[in-house]
């Protein structure tokens, strides 16, 4: 069995509020192997998004160690960490948010091409990813010319076009209706299995969470 | 009350928008108030300057003896309105000052020099006691008894005479005042655009709240009333500091800046700080704010949509074309101004769309190279920005075009005027021929003087001309006559606009030269034959040259004095003299002896030139200052708008960071985008600026004043503007930098 692509040890993070430190994550540890999926659930404010931010280096932990694709990061604000995190996000970590994942000035196709180009995986098959996610016909349209579901599929196409080792998805279907959300989730899991990348999915949706291999409930973590 | 609170709640959440709008109104008011004060001061300063060089009348003894204090007392007791006028000539840079007695000037009323227009601060008028003090220090001085009117009834033994200091400058001043007024209007237009652009940004974001209020049952008219009330209150509050700042700004420019320039370039700025706040400017600004912000209510909805459409662009192109053609063919000044307005309207309408289209095209081109995807994205973003920042883009384009044109005009004017003045005042001294004295005797005497440098006799008078080729009887026109004898070294260096071969020889042999004004007005060319009536003697002469003449609008012919008929009576005669190996005092002695008079007026041309240059120097300075201020305001507005707009796009730059682009690369992209935006506006301003320069020198000046200026371009100014654009773009990027750090992106990621 391969080692984990993502490993977290004793991770802690808090925020200052009214002069006091409010802990959000306390000594959290987890591991995700390639091809595995982990659902992060919990009530609002339990630290789901904070955890995902920490896992891709957009925030710095107060304590603990995060290891992604063999590279370890800890609390230090060392500037070289920033560059290494940036390199990881560029080549290995695909991030999907609830919305606003696309550059509005570029067509869906150009968005996918740009993301693949940044990851160094521009293959000429970017239209193919859009087609596989069911938005090939909209490839030359702009984000404001397609529906929310189509934009989210294009966002997934962007992530898969970069061949990531790890996908971090923060409420990727949160703004979609049930039917569209199911379709987008189907695409996400199918492609994740096909590419054998690891997936960490933050969601309120228990049905969506249940489709993951593992589940982490942060409700009591703080 | 609750409605009002709900209405303004937007600004509680977005105080920066309120601050930006308030700042823009304050800056716009500051600029407008500054321009108003400076223009008013330029006007009064020019009047003051002109008063110093204007032709005047003084009273002298019939026998040529100098007047003194007893004469003043005798004349006043005889009921004649006279006042002492003590001229003191100091060496440069102080130059000439005039001592006057304000009390004695009372009987002059409105026409009192130095009393109505200015203050007794030595620019150039001061109290006669101070002038007397300077005179006692050994500076050359002369006392005149100034008369209020040429046609005074004078006691026995006195006569009145005119005296003047140099070339009349009124029309030149009018030209600049006209340009200042046009510039002020342009400033008003630019500030209006800027205020509107900031206001529109806020309204676009408040649209949702207004719709909600409407759904809650608040009529749209009520919303509009509140919006108007809000604007009136905001404008009312903001114009006050704006007025104060504008007055301060004018004061700084009028004193500190002026003094710095005075010490550096000997350019004296008479205008100082304003005595009171320009309240009129406040009223104009409040009305302007209301007009530009609320104009949408009176413009039909379907018109507003047309602006960016294909049909709209076609209309804009038509407006631009008709403006261009209109200015080129306009028969009078009103049409030129109307055409210029059309050109600005058309160019402003088209520019943002064309720039966006260009950016889009370049973006499509970039996609051909797969490694150029970021460039493609940047160009697309640029296209979006040109569309969204249309108003500040156009305002900056106008401001830059204005600065370009004004700088080019002023620089051309300065150099041309300097050259022209140098030609006209080539000799070191000029001596007026006293009333009744025989200039011919003096000319004979000068001819015999050994060691004297170049000199000529100047005769001025009137003539009537008609063009022989026209063949129409009675088609004659009165012109000024300017006769020189001999034609020598003092004039042969003149740059002529058009001439025959060896024009000065041809002039000596009976040809005439005409000034540009006359040539334009009568469509005269070199080789045309004129029929000239001089003292009832009619002669024919060929036009052998056309010369520039910037001082006045009158048509003028230049002839050799040797060809004047014997019975010709000159209105004014003088000698221009280079002393050569002699001193001017020696030459003056010879002339005084010839004319048997002590009342000899000898003027130093260098000081006259300095005086005339000074008069225009300050006008040039003010014009430049106003255009520069406009540019600064437009750059600040673009900075604010650019920053606000970039903030709304900040997420997409953060997204690049989330996608793993190093922060330094993201910042580089931002920098390139903002700098490209501002530099592109500079490029768009260039053709408009060059065209405006042409319109000013080749259309407005000839139509208004009869003379044109050479069309010179100054690429160094273009570089200066490019630098302003570069700095603006870099500052936008710098302000945005803080918003791109990861910590700031946390909120977005946490959504």
TrEMBL record, chain A:
Cited InterPro entries: AAA+_ATPase, ABC_transporter-like_ATP-bd, ABC_transporter-like_CS, ABC_transpr_LolD-like, P-loop_NTPase
Residue intervals of the ABC transporter domain: 6-221
Keyword Zinc: no
SMART domains, per database record: AAA
Protein name from the UniProt record: ATP-binding cassette domain-containing protein
Taxonomic source organism: Marinobacter iranensis
Classification lineage: Bacteria, Pseudomonadati, Pseudomonadota, Gammaproteobacteria, Pseudomonadales
A GO molecular-function annotation: ATP binding
Keywords: ATP-binding, Nucleotide-binding
Xref: Pfam families: ABC_tran
């Amino acid at each position: 069995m391969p080692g984990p692509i993502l490993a977290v040890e004793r991770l802690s993070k808090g925020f200052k509020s009214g002069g006091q430190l409010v802990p959000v994550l306390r000594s959290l540890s987890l591991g995700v192997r390639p091809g595995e999926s982990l659902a992060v659930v919990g009530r609002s404010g339990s630290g789901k998004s904070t955890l995902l931010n920490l896992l891709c280096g957009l925030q710095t932990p107060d304590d603990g160690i995060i290891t992604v694709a063999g590279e370890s990061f800890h609390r230090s604000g060392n500037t070289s960490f920033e560059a290494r995190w940036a390199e990881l996000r560029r080549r290995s970590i695909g991030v999907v948010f609830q919305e606003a994942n696309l550059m509005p000035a570029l067509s869906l196709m150009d968005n996918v091409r740009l993301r693949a180009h940044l990851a160094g995986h521009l293959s000429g098959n970017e239209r193919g990813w859009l087609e596989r996610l069911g938005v090939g016909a909209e490839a030359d349209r702009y984000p404001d010319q397609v529906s929310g579901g189509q934009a989210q599929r294009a966002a997934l196409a962007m992530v898969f076009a970069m061949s990531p080792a790890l996908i971090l998805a923060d409420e990727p279907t949160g703004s979609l209706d049930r039917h569209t959300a199911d379709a987008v989730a189907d695409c996400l899991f199918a492609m994740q299995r096909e590419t054998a990348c690891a997936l960490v999915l933050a969601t309120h949706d228990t049905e969506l969470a249940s489709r993951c291999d593992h589940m982490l409930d942060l409700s009591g973590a703080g | 009350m609750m409605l009002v609170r709900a209405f303004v709640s937007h600004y509680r959440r977005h105080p920066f928008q309120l601050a930006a709008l308030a700042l823009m109104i304050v800056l716009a008011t500051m600029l407008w108030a500054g321009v108003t004060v400076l223009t008013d001061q330029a006007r009064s300063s020019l009047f003051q300057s002109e008063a110093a060089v204007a032709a005047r009348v003084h009273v002298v003894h019939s026998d040529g003896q100098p007047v003194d204090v007893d004469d003043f007392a005798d004349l006043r007791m005889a009921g004649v309105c006279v006042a002492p006028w003590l001229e003191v000539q100091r060496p440069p840079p102080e130059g000439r000052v005039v001592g006057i007695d304000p009390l004695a000037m009372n009987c002059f009323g409105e026409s009192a020099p130095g009393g109505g227009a200015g203050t007794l601060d030595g620019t150039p008028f001061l109290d006669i006691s101070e002038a007397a003090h300077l005179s006692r220090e050994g500076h050359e001085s002369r006392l005149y008894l100034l008369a209020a009117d040429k046609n005074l009834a004078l006691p026995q033994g006195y006569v009145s005479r005119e005296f003047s200091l140099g070339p009349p400058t009124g029309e030149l001043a009018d030209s600049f005042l006209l340009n200042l007024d046009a510039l002020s209007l342009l400033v008003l237009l630019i500030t209006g655009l800027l205020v509107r652009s900031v206001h529109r940004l806020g309204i676009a974001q408040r649209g949702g709240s207004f719709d909600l209020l409407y759904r809650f049952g608040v009529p749209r008219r009520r919303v509009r009333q509140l919006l108007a009330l809000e604007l009136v209150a905001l404008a009312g509050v903001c114009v006050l500091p704006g007025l104060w700042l504008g007055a301060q700004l004018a004061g700084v420019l009028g004193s500190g800046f002026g003094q710095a320039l005075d010490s550096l370039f000997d350019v004296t700025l008479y205008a100082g700080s304003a005595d009171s706040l320009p309240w009129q400017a406040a009223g104009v600004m409040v009305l302007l704010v209301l007009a530009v912000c609320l104009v949408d209510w009176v413009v039909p909805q379907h018109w507003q949509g047309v602006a960016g459409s294909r049909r709209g662009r076609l209309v804009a192109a038509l407006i631009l074309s008709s403006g261009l053609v209109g200015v080129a063919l306009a028969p009078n000044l009103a049409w030129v101004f109307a055409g210029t307005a059309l050109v600005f309207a058309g160019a402003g309408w088209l520019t943002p769309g064309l720039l966006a289209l260009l950016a889009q095209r370049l973006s499509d081109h970039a996609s051909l190279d797969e490694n150029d995807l970021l460039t493609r994205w940047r160009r697309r973003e640029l296209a979006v920005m040109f569309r969204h920042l249309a108003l500040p883009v156009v305002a900056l384009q106008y401001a830059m075009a204005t600065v370009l044109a004004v700088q080019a005009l002023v620089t051309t004017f300065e150099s041309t005027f300097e050259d022209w003045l140098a030609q006209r005042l080539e000799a070191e001294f000029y001596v007026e021929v006293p009333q009744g004295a025989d200039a011919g005797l003096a000319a004979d005497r000068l001819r015999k003087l050994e060691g004297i440098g170049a000199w000529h006799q100047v005769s001025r008078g009137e003539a009537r001309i008609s063009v022989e080729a026209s063949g129409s009887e009675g088609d004659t026109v009165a012109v000024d006559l300017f006769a020189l004898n001999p034609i020598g070294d003092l004039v042969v260096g003149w740059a002529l606009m058009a001439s025959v071969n060896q024009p000065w020889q041809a002039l000596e042999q009976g040809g005439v030269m005409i000034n540009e004004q006359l040539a334009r007005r009568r469509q005269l060319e070199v080789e045309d034959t004129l029929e000239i009536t001089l003292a009832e003697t009619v002669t024919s002469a060929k036009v052998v040259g056309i010369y520039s003449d910037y001082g006045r609008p009158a048509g003028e012919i230049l002839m050799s004095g040797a060809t004047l008929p014997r019975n010709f009576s000159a209105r004014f005669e003088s000698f221009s003299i280079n002393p050569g190996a002699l001193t001017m005092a020696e030459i003056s002695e010879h002339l005084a002896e010839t004319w048997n008079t002590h009342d000899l007026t000898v003027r130093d041309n260098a000081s006259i030139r300095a005086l005339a240059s000074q008069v225009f120097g300050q006008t040039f300075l003010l014009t430049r200052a106003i255009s520069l201020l406009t540019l600064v305001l437009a750059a600040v507005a673009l900075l604010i708008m650019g920053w606000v707009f970039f903030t709304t796009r900040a997420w997409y730059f953060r997204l690049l960071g989330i996608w793993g682009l190093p922060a330094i690369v993201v910042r580089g992209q931002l920098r390139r985008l903002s700098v490209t935006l501002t530099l592109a506006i500079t490029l768009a301003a260039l053709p408009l600026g060059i065209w405006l320069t042409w319109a000013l020198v080749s259309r407005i000046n000839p139509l208004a004043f009869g003379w044109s200026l050479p069309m010179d371009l100054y690429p160094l100014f273009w570089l200066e503007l490019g630098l302003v654009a570069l700095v603006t773009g870099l500052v936008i990027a710098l302000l945005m930098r803080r918003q791109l750090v990861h910590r700031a992106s946390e909120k977005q990621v946490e959504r």
